[in-house]
Design a protein that fits this description.
Blueprint (H helix, E strand, L loop, with lengths): L1 E7 L2 H14 L3 E6 L4 E8 L2 E11 L5 E10 L11 H12 L2
Antiparallel strand pairs: 1-5, 2-3, 3-4, 4-5
Helix pairs in contact: 1-2
């Protein structure tokens, strides 16, 4: 599942902010790739397991940044029938740096 956000601020500021936010939200193995402009982390809170990659690029509007959040979650359990694990991971991530 993928979601795109446009936020105010510079790219480098958002790379740092996303990494800190993911760590604060309980994501593990958070890594920042400055060259590609990506922040990646693993979410493992029962019953939701998955990964998130945030790609950070300058937006067309000056002084803004585009965040592309791509979640890949494990949907092979009974709990995935009741709520989307991808939506859960995206919600936790957005709440961590909002």
């Amino acid at each position: 599942m993928e979601e795109v956000l446009v936020v105010a601020g510079e790219r480098d500021e958002w790379l740092t902010r996303c990494a800190k936010g993911l760590m604060a939200a309980g994501f593990k193995d958070v890594q920042t790739g400055m060259v590609l402009g990506q922040v990646a982390g693993t979410y493992r809170k029962y019953p939701t397991w998955g990964e998130l990659v945030i790609t950070v690029v300058p937006a067309a509007q000056a002084g803004h940044t585009q965040l592309t959040l791509r979640s890949t979650a494990h949907v092979d359990n009974i709990f995935a029938l009741f709520s989307s694990p991808n939506k859960k991971i995206l919600s936790v991530a957005k709440g961590s740096f909002a």
